[in-house]
Specification:
The chain is α+β, with helices and mostly antiparallel strands and 359 residues long. The protein has helices spanning 2-9, 14-40, 49-63, 67-85, 94-133, 183-201, 207-221, 297-300, 311-320, 327-342, and strands spanning 144-151, 159-165, 172-179, 228-235, 241-247, 253-255, 261-263, 282-285, 291-295, 351-358.
Protein backbone atom coordinates (compact mmCIF):
# COMPACT_ATOMS: atom_id res chain seq x y z
CA UNK A 1 0.00 0.00 0.00
CA UNK A 2 2.81 2.38 0.88
CA UNK A 3 4.59 1.59 -2.38
CA UNK A 4 1.39 2.27 -4.33
CA UNK A 5 0.96 5.64 -2.61
CA UNK A 6 4.57 6.53 -3.33
CA UNK A 7 4.08 5.59 -6.99
CA UNK A 8 0.84 7.60 -7.18
CA UNK A 9 2.36 10.75 -5.67
CA UNK A 10 5.88 10.34 -7.13
CA UNK A 11 7.19 10.63 -3.56
CA UNK A 12 5.85 14.17 -3.12
CA UNK A 13 4.39 15.46 0.14
CA UNK A 14 0.78 16.64 0.41
CA UNK A 15 1.86 20.28 0.55
CA UNK A 16 3.97 19.85 -2.60
CA UNK A 17 1.08 18.12 -4.38
CA UNK A 18 -1.31 20.93 -3.46
CA UNK A 19 1.16 23.58 -4.62
CA UNK A 20 1.61 21.76 -7.92
CA UNK A 21 -2.14 21.35 -8.35
CA UNK A 22 -2.74 25.07 -7.79
CA UNK A 23 -0.01 26.02 -10.24
CA UNK A 24 -1.35 23.67 -12.93
CA UNK A 25 -4.94 24.77 -12.31
CA UNK A 26 -3.93 28.41 -12.64
CA UNK A 27 -2.06 27.69 -15.87
CA UNK A 28 -4.96 25.72 -17.36
CA UNK A 29 -7.55 28.31 -16.36
CA UNK A 30 -5.73 30.93 -18.44
CA UNK A 31 -7.27 29.25 -21.51
CA UNK A 32 -10.72 30.29 -20.32
CA UNK A 33 -10.06 33.62 -18.60
CA UNK A 34 -9.90 35.50 -21.90
CA UNK A 35 -13.38 34.22 -22.82
CA UNK A 36 -14.82 34.82 -19.36
CA UNK A 37 -13.47 38.33 -18.73
CA UNK A 38 -15.87 40.21 -21.04
CA UNK A 39 -18.86 38.34 -19.57
CA UNK A 40 -17.83 38.83 -15.95
CA UNK A 41 -17.10 42.52 -16.48
CA UNK A 42 -20.59 43.22 -17.82
CA UNK A 43 -22.71 45.12 -15.22
CA UNK A 44 -25.88 43.23 -14.31
CA UNK A 45 -28.00 42.19 -11.36
CA UNK A 46 -26.07 40.20 -8.75
CA UNK A 47 -28.36 37.15 -8.92
CA UNK A 48 -27.64 36.78 -12.65
CA UNK A 49 -23.87 36.80 -12.32
CA UNK A 50 -23.43 33.08 -11.36
CA UNK A 51 -25.62 32.02 -14.30
CA UNK A 52 -23.73 34.32 -16.66
CA UNK A 53 -20.43 32.89 -15.44
CA UNK A 54 -21.56 29.27 -15.91
CA UNK A 55 -22.95 30.04 -19.36
CA UNK A 56 -19.71 31.72 -20.43
CA UNK A 57 -17.61 28.88 -19.00
CA UNK A 58 -19.68 26.20 -20.73
CA UNK A 59 -19.56 28.12 -24.02
CA UNK A 60 -15.78 28.50 -23.69
CA UNK A 61 -15.37 24.74 -23.10
CA UNK A 62 -17.52 23.92 -26.13
CA UNK A 63 -15.55 26.26 -28.40
CA UNK A 64 -12.33 24.44 -27.56
CA UNK A 65 -13.73 21.02 -28.53
CA UNK A 66 -13.96 19.55 -32.02
CA UNK A 67 -17.49 19.54 -33.53
CA UNK A 68 -17.85 15.77 -32.98
CA UNK A 69 -16.82 15.97 -29.32
CA UNK A 70 -18.91 19.10 -28.86
CA UNK A 71 -22.03 17.20 -29.98
CA UNK A 72 -21.08 14.16 -27.91
CA UNK A 73 -20.70 16.33 -24.78
CA UNK A 74 -24.07 18.00 -25.34
CA UNK A 75 -25.79 14.60 -25.69
CA UNK A 76 -24.24 13.32 -22.47
CA UNK A 77 -25.21 16.54 -20.66
CA UNK A 78 -28.80 16.14 -21.90
CA UNK A 79 -28.88 12.54 -20.64
CA UNK A 80 -27.49 13.66 -17.29
CA UNK A 81 -30.17 16.40 -17.03
CA UNK A 82 -32.95 13.93 -17.90
CA UNK A 83 -31.74 11.52 -15.22
CA UNK A 84 -31.69 14.32 -12.62
CA UNK A 85 -35.24 15.53 -13.37
CA UNK A 86 -36.52 11.94 -13.55
CA UNK A 87 -37.68 12.06 -17.16
CA UNK A 88 -37.41 8.82 -19.15
CA UNK A 89 -38.93 7.37 -22.28
CA UNK A 90 -39.61 3.87 -23.68
CA UNK A 91 -37.46 1.29 -21.91
CA UNK A 92 -34.74 3.78 -20.87
CA UNK A 93 -34.95 4.20 -17.12
CA UNK A 94 -33.44 6.90 -14.96
CA UNK A 95 -30.60 4.55 -13.97
CA UNK A 96 -29.78 3.81 -17.62
CA UNK A 97 -29.79 7.53 -18.46
CA UNK A 98 -27.44 8.26 -15.60
CA UNK A 99 -25.18 5.34 -16.56
CA UNK A 100 -25.01 6.41 -20.20
CA UNK A 101 -24.21 9.99 -19.19
CA UNK A 102 -21.47 8.78 -16.84
CA UNK A 103 -19.95 6.51 -19.49
CA UNK A 104 -20.14 9.32 -22.07
CA UNK A 105 -18.28 11.74 -19.81
CA UNK A 106 -15.75 9.03 -18.99
CA UNK A 107 -15.12 8.44 -22.71
CA UNK A 108 -14.59 12.17 -23.25
CA UNK A 109 -12.19 12.27 -20.29
CA UNK A 110 -10.17 9.37 -21.70
CA UNK A 111 -10.01 11.06 -25.12
CA UNK A 112 -8.87 14.36 -23.62
CA UNK A 113 -6.26 12.60 -21.49
CA UNK A 114 -5.05 10.80 -24.62
CA UNK A 115 -4.68 14.13 -26.40
CA UNK A 116 -2.84 15.55 -23.41
CA UNK A 117 -0.42 12.63 -23.20
CA UNK A 118 0.24 12.76 -26.94
CA UNK A 119 0.79 16.53 -26.77
CA UNK A 120 3.14 16.18 -23.80
CA UNK A 121 5.16 13.59 -25.69
CA UNK A 122 5.43 15.93 -28.67
CA UNK A 123 6.46 18.80 -26.39
CA UNK A 124 9.13 16.63 -24.77
CA UNK A 125 10.48 15.86 -28.23
CA UNK A 126 10.42 19.60 -29.02
CA UNK A 127 12.30 20.31 -25.80
CA UNK A 128 14.97 17.77 -26.70
CA UNK A 129 15.33 19.30 -30.16
CA UNK A 130 15.61 22.76 -28.62
CA UNK A 131 18.26 21.56 -26.18
CA UNK A 132 20.29 20.30 -29.13
CA UNK A 133 20.05 23.69 -30.83
CA UNK A 134 21.54 25.46 -27.80
CA UNK A 135 25.24 25.07 -26.92
CA UNK A 136 25.83 22.42 -24.25
CA UNK A 137 29.06 23.97 -23.07
CA UNK A 138 30.92 27.24 -23.28
CA UNK A 139 33.47 27.58 -26.11
CA UNK A 140 37.11 27.21 -25.16
CA UNK A 141 38.68 30.47 -26.23
CA UNK A 142 42.05 31.51 -24.77
CA UNK A 143 41.66 34.62 -22.62
CA UNK A 144 37.84 34.46 -22.56
CA UNK A 145 35.70 32.83 -19.86
CA UNK A 146 32.03 32.28 -20.78
CA UNK A 147 29.14 30.82 -18.78
CA UNK A 148 25.42 30.71 -19.54
CA UNK A 149 22.15 29.35 -18.19
CA UNK A 150 18.53 29.30 -19.33
CA UNK A 151 15.19 28.33 -17.79
CA UNK A 152 12.10 28.26 -20.00
CA UNK A 153 8.86 29.34 -18.34
CA UNK A 154 7.22 26.31 -19.95
CA UNK A 155 8.64 23.09 -21.35
CA UNK A 156 10.08 24.97 -24.31
CA UNK A 157 10.81 28.66 -24.58
CA UNK A 158 11.72 31.53 -26.87
CA UNK A 159 15.05 32.57 -25.36
CA UNK A 160 18.21 31.88 -27.33
CA UNK A 161 21.89 32.18 -26.50
CA UNK A 162 25.06 31.21 -28.30
CA UNK A 163 28.80 31.88 -28.36
CA UNK A 164 31.09 30.58 -31.08
CA UNK A 165 34.02 31.60 -33.29
CA UNK A 166 32.84 32.86 -36.68
CA UNK A 167 35.91 31.26 -38.23
CA UNK A 168 39.26 29.84 -37.14
CA UNK A 169 41.20 32.50 -35.26
CA UNK A 170 38.30 34.86 -35.92
CA UNK A 171 36.16 36.92 -33.52
CA UNK A 172 33.92 35.30 -30.92
CA UNK A 173 30.28 35.85 -31.83
CA UNK A 174 28.05 36.38 -28.79
CA UNK A 175 24.27 36.26 -29.07
CA UNK A 176 21.39 36.45 -26.60
CA UNK A 177 17.88 36.82 -28.02
CA UNK A 178 14.31 36.78 -26.78
CA UNK A 179 11.44 35.92 -29.12
CA UNK A 180 8.16 37.60 -28.15
CA UNK A 181 5.85 35.07 -26.51
CA UNK A 182 6.40 31.69 -24.92
CA UNK A 183 6.00 27.97 -25.51
CA UNK A 184 5.78 26.26 -28.93
CA UNK A 185 5.27 29.33 -31.22
CA UNK A 186 8.20 31.16 -29.65
CA UNK A 187 10.33 28.00 -29.71
CA UNK A 188 9.70 27.53 -33.44
CA UNK A 189 10.79 31.10 -34.17
CA UNK A 190 13.79 30.61 -31.92
CA UNK A 191 14.85 27.58 -33.98
CA UNK A 192 14.53 29.67 -37.16
CA UNK A 193 16.60 32.44 -35.55
CA UNK A 194 19.31 29.95 -34.58
CA UNK A 195 19.52 28.46 -38.06
CA UNK A 196 19.64 31.90 -39.70
CA UNK A 197 22.32 33.18 -37.34
CA UNK A 198 24.54 30.14 -37.85
CA UNK A 199 24.18 30.30 -41.63
CA UNK A 200 24.86 34.04 -41.86
CA UNK A 201 27.76 33.91 -39.40
CA UNK A 202 29.62 31.49 -41.67
CA UNK A 203 29.75 34.12 -44.42
CA UNK A 204 32.18 37.02 -44.53
CA UNK A 205 31.02 40.44 -43.45
CA UNK A 206 30.78 42.78 -40.49
CA UNK A 207 28.46 42.43 -37.53
CA UNK A 208 26.21 45.07 -39.07
CA UNK A 209 25.97 43.03 -42.29
CA UNK A 210 25.13 39.94 -40.28
CA UNK A 211 22.34 41.72 -38.38
CA UNK A 212 20.83 43.18 -41.55
CA UNK A 213 20.64 39.69 -43.04
CA UNK A 214 19.28 38.29 -39.80
CA UNK A 215 16.56 40.94 -39.68
CA UNK A 216 15.49 40.02 -43.21
CA UNK A 217 15.17 36.38 -42.18
CA UNK A 218 13.23 37.24 -39.02
CA UNK A 219 10.87 39.52 -40.97
CA UNK A 220 10.26 36.75 -43.49
CA UNK A 221 9.47 34.12 -40.84
CA UNK A 222 7.73 36.12 -38.11
CA UNK A 223 3.97 36.16 -37.77
CA UNK A 224 2.06 39.39 -37.16
CA UNK A 225 3.02 40.85 -33.81
CA UNK A 226 6.00 38.52 -33.37
CA UNK A 227 9.41 40.13 -33.05
CA UNK A 228 12.76 39.28 -31.51
CA UNK A 229 14.90 41.39 -29.22
CA UNK A 230 18.58 40.57 -29.36
CA UNK A 231 22.04 41.52 -28.21
CA UNK A 232 24.77 40.50 -30.65
CA UNK A 233 28.47 41.18 -30.39
CA UNK A 234 31.83 40.25 -31.85
CA UNK A 235 34.73 40.00 -29.41
CA UNK A 236 38.38 39.88 -30.46
CA UNK A 237 39.95 37.52 -27.90
CA UNK A 238 43.44 38.96 -28.43
CA UNK A 239 42.70 42.68 -28.04
CA UNK A 240 39.34 42.67 -26.23
CA UNK A 241 37.79 44.91 -28.90
CA UNK A 242 34.02 44.46 -28.81
CA UNK A 243 31.64 45.43 -31.59
CA UNK A 244 28.05 45.16 -30.37
CA UNK A 245 24.44 45.83 -31.29
CA UNK A 246 21.43 45.94 -28.98
CA UNK A 247 18.19 45.45 -30.93
CA UNK A 248 15.44 46.42 -28.49
CA UNK A 249 17.05 44.17 -25.89
CA UNK A 250 17.92 44.86 -22.26
CA UNK A 251 21.29 46.66 -22.44
CA UNK A 252 23.94 44.42 -20.86
CA UNK A 253 26.00 45.51 -17.89
CA UNK A 254 29.75 45.91 -18.36
CA UNK A 255 31.59 45.88 -15.04
CA UNK A 256 35.08 47.30 -15.18
CA UNK A 257 37.91 46.02 -13.00
CA UNK A 258 37.71 49.20 -10.86
CA UNK A 259 34.05 48.36 -9.97
CA UNK A 260 32.37 50.92 -12.25
CA UNK A 261 29.48 49.94 -14.53
CA UNK A 262 28.58 50.78 -18.12
CA UNK A 263 25.48 49.95 -20.19
CA UNK A 264 25.98 48.77 -23.76
CA UNK A 265 23.07 50.62 -25.33
CA UNK A 266 22.26 51.24 -28.97
CA UNK A 267 19.15 52.80 -30.49
CA UNK A 268 17.88 49.89 -32.57
CA UNK A 269 14.39 48.44 -32.74
CA UNK A 270 13.80 44.68 -32.33
CA UNK A 271 14.34 42.35 -35.25
CA UNK A 272 11.38 41.38 -37.40
CA UNK A 273 9.53 44.72 -37.33
CA UNK A 274 10.93 46.85 -40.16
CA UNK A 275 12.57 45.19 -43.15
CA UNK A 276 14.59 48.27 -44.14
CA UNK A 277 15.73 49.20 -40.61
CA UNK A 278 19.28 50.56 -40.49
CA UNK A 279 20.99 48.75 -37.61
CA UNK A 280 24.08 50.49 -36.22
CA UNK A 281 26.76 48.98 -34.02
CA UNK A 282 28.71 50.33 -31.08
CA UNK A 283 32.37 49.74 -30.15
CA UNK A 284 34.07 49.32 -26.80
CA UNK A 285 36.89 47.26 -25.31
CA UNK A 286 36.92 44.59 -22.66
CA UNK A 287 40.05 45.01 -20.60
CA UNK A 288 41.43 42.13 -18.59
CA UNK A 289 39.13 41.09 -15.72
CA UNK A 290 36.21 43.11 -17.09
CA UNK A 291 32.83 41.39 -16.76
CA UNK A 292 30.02 41.48 -19.34
CA UNK A 293 26.54 40.40 -18.14
CA UNK A 294 23.91 39.76 -20.83
CA UNK A 295 20.39 38.74 -19.83
CA UNK A 296 16.78 38.60 -20.99
CA UNK A 297 13.95 40.49 -19.31
CA UNK A 298 12.88 37.28 -17.57
CA UNK A 299 15.70 37.92 -15.08
CA UNK A 300 14.89 41.48 -14.02
CA UNK A 301 11.10 41.01 -14.36
CA UNK A 302 10.97 37.84 -12.27
CA UNK A 303 8.38 38.30 -9.50
CA UNK A 304 7.92 36.93 -6.02
CA UNK A 305 4.64 36.05 -4.32
CA UNK A 306 4.09 39.74 -3.47
CA UNK A 307 4.35 40.61 -7.19
CA UNK A 308 7.58 42.57 -6.61
CA UNK A 309 10.12 42.42 -9.45
CA UNK A 310 13.72 41.30 -9.03
CA UNK A 311 14.80 44.40 -10.92
CA UNK A 312 18.12 45.78 -12.09
CA UNK A 313 19.01 47.08 -8.64
CA UNK A 314 19.12 43.59 -7.16
CA UNK A 315 21.05 42.30 -10.16
CA UNK A 316 23.60 45.09 -9.74
CA UNK A 317 23.95 44.29 -6.03
CA UNK A 318 24.99 40.75 -6.94
CA UNK A 319 27.45 41.99 -9.55
CA UNK A 320 28.99 44.54 -7.19
CA UNK A 321 30.37 41.80 -4.94
CA UNK A 322 31.62 39.73 -7.88
CA UNK A 323 35.40 39.81 -8.00
CA UNK A 324 37.85 37.76 -10.02
CA UNK A 325 36.10 34.43 -9.77
CA UNK A 326 35.16 32.37 -12.80
CA UNK A 327 32.13 33.34 -14.84
CA UNK A 328 30.33 30.16 -13.75
CA UNK A 329 30.54 31.25 -10.11
CA UNK A 330 29.16 34.72 -10.87
CA UNK A 331 26.35 33.14 -12.87
CA UNK A 332 25.56 30.73 -10.02
CA UNK A 333 25.37 33.67 -7.59
CA UNK A 334 22.89 35.47 -9.85
CA UNK A 335 20.65 32.43 -10.24
CA UNK A 336 20.77 31.65 -6.52
CA UNK A 337 19.80 35.20 -5.56
CA UNK A 338 17.03 35.08 -8.15
CA UNK A 339 15.70 31.81 -6.70
CA UNK A 340 15.81 33.17 -3.15
CA UNK A 341 13.89 36.27 -4.21
CA UNK A 342 11.21 34.49 -6.26
CA UNK A 343 10.61 31.70 -3.74
CA UNK A 344 7.63 29.54 -4.66
CA UNK A 345 6.09 32.06 -7.07
CA UNK A 346 5.35 30.82 -10.60
CA UNK A 347 7.88 31.66 -13.30
CA UNK A 348 6.03 33.78 -15.87
CA UNK A 349 8.78 34.34 -18.46
CA UNK A 350 11.83 32.60 -19.89
CA UNK A 351 15.07 33.35 -18.02
CA UNK A 352 18.47 33.48 -19.72
CA UNK A 353 21.75 34.93 -18.55
CA UNK A 354 25.26 34.90 -20.05
CA UNK A 355 28.49 35.98 -18.37
CA UNK A 356 31.57 36.87 -20.41
CA UNK A 357 34.84 37.69 -18.63
CA UNK A 358 38.19 38.56 -20.16
CA UNK A 359 40.86 36.84 -18.11
Amino acid sequence: MQDSWRWLTAGMEIEELWTQFKAEAGESSRLYKQDLSPQIGTPEQSWKRPFTFLKALFSSVLKKLSPARRLFLLLTMILAFLSVVGFHFLFITQEIEFGLAFVGLLILLVLVLGDHISMQRDIEIAREIQRRLLPRGAPEVPGIDVAFATRPAKTVGGDYYDAFLRRTNGPLLIAVADVAGKSIPAAMLMATFQASLRALASAKGSLSDLVHGLNRQVCANSQAGRFTTAFLAELDPATGDLSYLCAGHNPPFLKREDGSFERLKSDNIPLGIELQEDYTTGITRLERHDLLVIYTDGVTEARNEDRDEFGETRLLSVLQVASGERSAITLADIMRNLDDFVGSARQHDDITCMIVRRT
